[in-house]
Amino acid sequence: MRDIPELNRSPFLWDKIDKEDIQSRINMIRPDNMFVIFSSKLNKKLKDVDPKKLETEKWYNTQFMAENFESSFLSELNSIKKPDDLKMGYPEPNKFIPQNLATSDKFTTSFKTPTNILSEQGINMFYKQDSKFKQPMVGIRCKITTDEMGYPNTPESRIFA
Amino acid sequence: MGNAFDMFTLDIGLTDKGEKDYQQVMKFVYMFINEIKKEGVKDFLYDELKRKSEMQFANEKKMSPMETANELSKKLNANL
Questions:
Q1: Among residues A9, A136, A57, which one has the least CA distance to residue B53?
Q2: Interface pTM, i.e. ipTM
Q3: Rounded to whole angstroms, how far apart are CA atoms B6 and A29?
Q4: Does B69 touch chain A (CB under 8 A)?
Q5: Which of A85, A114, B50, B73 lies 20 to 30 A from A16 at CA?
Q6: Structural contact between residues A126 and A112, judged by C-beta atoms closer than 8 angstroms
Q7: What does the pLDDT look like over B12-57, one tens digit per residue?
Q8: Helix count (H) and strand count (E) of chain B?
């Protein structure tokens, strides 16, 4: 039995890249292995099909049809290559994922009360930085009120606005 | 991937045009898969996932005692 800290940490650990293992799993994604479920409201094919070929599933009595793809189509999928001018492939490296994961202690000011940073007609925005937990998170809370229909000054607006 | 058996699944929502010609959509999917197979595994993607996971661990929200006990008991059971 492993110890508790290790158990807590283990789901987040990415110690070593096993390229061969990943590649072998990618290589398993092949047309002859695939199973396609196609559902469509536009599909009129079932109406044209021989009723004897239709099956009915037992829970909702929905009619469906199972068929194999043409082997020529599967071969085409297996060898199809993207045209050179089609931009398709891995994404660019994500520059927004930080390289240095240490929490910054740059902001040591202790904010006791929120500061009003924007005050315009109809908008009041307050800001208070957390200097205690140092979590890289932002919490945004909005309270939007409207005076349409006289809200909140009339009983009707309280119900319908 | 699971211990014994798992599936790689792709869910694709189609437009009306895509529904009428879904085999063309499948061709695009395999263009992409074949391209990934050809290019192989990229270190930078693994590195990004690793750093994201580290960030997630460092900033994991504290669970309630009940959730903590529940999660740990599941992990202990799986690692006996």
A1: A9
A2: 0.73
A3: 12
A4: no
A5: B73
A6: no
A7: 999 989 988 899 999 999 999 999 999 888 889 999 999 999 888 8
A8: 4, 0
B34/A82 CB distance under 8 A: yes
* Cβ–Cβ contact A132 with B under 8 A: no
* Rounded mean pLDDT, A117-136: 82
Helix axes A19-27, B22-39, angle to 10 degrees: 160
pTM exceeding the 0.80 threshold for the entire prediction: no
Cα dihedral sign, A100-A102-A107-A111 = positive
Contact present, B72 and A117 (Cβ < 8 Å): no
For residue A13, the model assigns a pLDDT of 81
Using CA atoms, how far residue A156 sits from A144, A149, A151, B11, B23, in Å, is 18, 8, 8, 46, 55
Mean pLDDT, rounded, for A28-50: 82
Selected residue of A12, A15, A69 to mutate for chain B interface (largest B Cβ count, 10 A): A12
